[in-house]
Q: What sequence folds into this?
DNA sequence: CGTGAGGTAATTATTTACCTCACGGTGCGATAAT
């Protein structure tokens, strides 16, 4: 099969990016496949292309509504009309119409929660599924155990659908997480295509700062001096808001905050303005980033400590997709691990909550409020209520599960802290975490190996070019970017 | 744990100093139907 000419005629690309062809051939051979490809290397092609060559529909499990909307829009722009996103954006009648003619769609995007709905799943069972693709598959492991438990149910969904050919896609997963993905999807001995997570053009810097106040000042200085655009990550909505306001006050740049507390429309607007260059700095929580496809982000700063290396890597990986030099800075003050620790603890129920829940006789919907649970805590309790045990035994049993999960999360945080405190090459530490060999020498590696921060500052170019580029040109650049991108990225098969 | 908001006392009246307390991230779907 001449895949290359098909690629050319259907998608207009003249060559595959690293990994794409192997993944596609694996699927066309009928093998379940796990693919870990660096961010922005065109993962969606890995399910789109084979879907055309297979008989039946392609179901794509996607974690975010905005991601589904973006993907369907892009496909429609390319001329593919046989696409639907089954989610709560559909009105009742729209949804009915879509469900009545599911088989007519080549591509069906759907959330794990929607797949949990028996009626929807029943409809999906009636059509021929050629390919079951799970996008951002690390979410299974990262979110499935508590935050979004429907993710753990995907294996059962897959079985219900008649165990179709399956593709799991991700950009960041350790060996253990990859095993988790296979386990929960019920993949037996899939082909695995694993590429390096290394992004050589992103320099890594970790600053140890004596106090919170000094950290703020340092951050403002970075925001002033570094080449923009950039993202600053916070673990608190309030801190993100306050810093955005402060940056505006100091007249540094067009700065805006982005977090889950901002209403949906406003969030979309801010993201668009950032992509088209009207906003230069985003002060964000972890809500920002997935699916943000902007090539020229020059810096990512962490004001707070991420909860795990995977999150850190994903967040810094949003810089420098154009292959140009970019920098990731993490500001660390002794004791910063307390905040993520707090967040972790609020995810799982306390002993008191477990005991109270085991004795709960009222309406389950009221239990959360009565016990003072956060939403993840309540989900955890509800998820485990099926264990048919007497009160005390149940409490003991579920407490053990909780403890194990808590220990796992603490371990992940500890690994993050160890990297930050370590005095060996940052890049090699990250690679080691993902089971890769150390970094091969790179002149702009990290603060340990030696780094010239001035290279990333905007006064290098006296004035910079971005300010003088008119908006229409940015728009054009963006359109071209979507068409053809060159990656100077080293993609090492391991 | 560290921050910020809000309260209270202090020996003079508006301000300061100190205390206590709450808070801290991520998203789907949301009625019923086969």
A:
């Amino acid at each position: 099969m001449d895949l290359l000419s098909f690629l050319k005629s259907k998608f207009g690309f003249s060559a595959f990016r690293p990994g794409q062809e192997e993944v596609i051939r694996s699927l066309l051979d009928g093998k379940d496949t796990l693919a870990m490809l660096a961010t922005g290397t065109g993962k969606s092609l890995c399910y789109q292309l084979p879907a055309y060559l297979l008989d039946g529909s392609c179901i794509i499990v996607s974690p975010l509504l905005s991601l589904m909307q973006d993907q369907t829009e892009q496909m429609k722009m390319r001329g593919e009309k046989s696409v639907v996103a089954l989610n709560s954006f559909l009105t009742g009648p729209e949804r009915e119409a879509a469900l009545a003619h599911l088989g007519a769609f080549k591509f069906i995007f759907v959330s794990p929660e929607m797949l949990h709905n028996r009626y929807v799943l029943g409809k999906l069972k009636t059509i021929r599924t050629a390919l079951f693709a799970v996008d951002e598959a690390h979410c299974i492991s990262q979110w499935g155990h508590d935050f979004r438990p429907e993710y753990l149910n995907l294996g059962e969904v897959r079985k219900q659908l008649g165990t179709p050919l399956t593709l799991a896609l991700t950009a960041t997963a350790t060996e253990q997480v990859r095993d988790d993905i296979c386990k929960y999807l019920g993949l037996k001995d899939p082909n695995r295509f694993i590429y390096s997570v290394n992004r050589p053009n992103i320099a890594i810097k970790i600053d140890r700062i004596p106090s919170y106040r000094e950290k703020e000042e340092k951050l403002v200085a970075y925001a002033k001096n570094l080449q923009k655009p950039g993202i600053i990550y916070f673990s608190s909505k309030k801190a993100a808001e306050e810093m955005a306001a402060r940056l505006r006050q100091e007249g540094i740049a067009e700065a805006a905050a982005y977090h889950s507390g901002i209403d949906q429309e406003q969030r979309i607007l801010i993201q668009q303005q950032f992509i088209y260059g009207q906003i230069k700095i985003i002060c964000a929580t972890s809500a920002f980033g997935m699916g943000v496809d902007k090539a020229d982000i020059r810096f990512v700063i962490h004001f707070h400590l991420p909860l795990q290396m995977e999150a850190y890597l994903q967040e810094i990986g949003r810089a420098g997709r154009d292959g140009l030099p970019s920098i990731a800075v993490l500001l660390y003050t002794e004791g910063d691990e307390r905040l993520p620790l707090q967040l972790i603890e609020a995810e799982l129920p306390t002993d008191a909550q477990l005991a109270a829940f085991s004795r709960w006789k009222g309406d389950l919907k009221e239990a959360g409020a009565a016990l003072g649970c956060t939403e993840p805590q309540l989900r955890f309790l509800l998820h485990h209520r099926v264990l048919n045990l007497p009160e005390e035994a149940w409490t003991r049993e579920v407490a053990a599960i909780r403890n194990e999960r808590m220990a796992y999360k603490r371990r992940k945080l500890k690994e993050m802290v160890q990297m930050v405190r370590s005095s060996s090459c940052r890049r090699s530490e990250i690679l080691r975490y993902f089971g890769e060999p150390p970094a091969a020498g790179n002149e702009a590696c990290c603060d340990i190996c030696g780094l010239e921060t001035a290279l990333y500052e905007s006064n290098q170019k006296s004035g910079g070019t971005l300010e003088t580029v008119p908006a229409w040109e940015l728009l054009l650049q963006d359109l071209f970017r979507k068409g053809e991108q060159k990656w100077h990225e080293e993609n090492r098969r391991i």
